[in-house]
Amino acid sequence: MQEIMYQIVRSDRKSVALVIDNDANLIVRAPLLMPDSTIEEFVSKKKRWISEKQKQVAVFGEKHPPVAVKTGESIMYLGSSYAIIKDNVEDVEVSGNELIVPDQFVTDALISWFKEQALIIIKERVTLYAGIMGVKPEAIKLSEAKARWGSCSAKNNLNFAWRIIMCPLSVIDYIVVHELSHITYKNHGAAFWARVKTILPSYEDAQEWLKDNRKLMDII
Ligand SMILES: [Zn+2]
């Protein structure tokens, strides 16, 4: 039988939680006084779940099932993977690489939280880059789009998919600068791309990231 490797993190909690980190390592969160043998027994009962989760991490970006809002699942936020931990908290707390969510939290509540964060951060970045670029967008709204990350209307109303909150900030910045450039250029001509490049010289890295992580952003 193959032995399961894991690290134990003890804290003032009541039950055991298994977390698979970004590198597919198993971390066992356990109560302070729980004996090692009890932990080992728990882990061995969860062997199948652990190996499935570890395989998913190994193919990160290839195929990912919808995220369930429960301890042990993980979710992308601002380009990093966060382990979901259900706990007795009032609202979502970001702590290290963990997203601590209230016990009764369900997927809809997590999506609402993502949308709130998306609006705050996108508005900040739009204000920053609109200032740098000397353009003035009209309304800023969120969309439900799964592949169209942003758009700019004829009247310069900007729409952004709330899902882009899962991207690293550098990628969010690219999407913001892309749409702000459409205020001046309503097409994707050479002048448009020259404008984007002036503001973000390595914008192609962001395009690459979006191509590689598209599927991962479709998990909630
Ligand atoms: Zn465009």
Structure characterization notes:
- The chain has 220 residues and is α/β, with parallel strands linked by helices.
- The chain folds into 2 domains: 1-58, no CATH class; 111-218, Zincin-like, CATH 3.30.2010.
- The protein is 39% helix and 21% strand.
- The chain contains 6 helices and 10 strands; from the N terminus they run E-E-E-H-H-E-E-E-E-H-E-E-E-H-H-H.
- The strands form 3 sheets. Strands 4-5-7-6 form a 4-stranded mixed sheet, with no helix packed on it. Strands 1-3-2 form a 3-stranded mixed sheet. Strands 8-10-9 form a 3-stranded mixed sheet, covered by helices on one side.
- Helix 3 crosses helix 4 (169-184) and helix 4 crosses helix 6.
- The model has no long low-confidence stretch (mean pLDDT 90).
- The structure holds zinc ion (ZN).
- Zinc ion binds at residues 178, 182, 188.
Features:
6 helices, elongated, binds zinc ion, 10 strands, 2 domains, 220 residues, Zincin-like, 21% strand, three-stranded mixed beta sheet, four-stranded mixed beta sheet, alpha/beta
CATH architecture of the largest domain: 2-Layer Sandwich
CATH topology of the largest domain: Zincin-like
**Percentage beta strand:** 15-25%
Gyration radius (Cα, Å) is 21 Å
CATH class of the largest domain: Alpha Beta
From N to C, what is the helix and strand string?
A: EEEHHEEEEHEEEHHH
Give, in spatial order, the strands making up the sheet with the most strands. Answer: 4-5-7-6
Overall mean confidence score, pLDDT = 90
Number of domains: 2
Bound molecules: zinc ion
Low-confidence stretches: none
Major pleated sheet: 4 strands, mixed
Q: Give the N-terminus to C-terminus distance in angstroms.
A: 35 Å
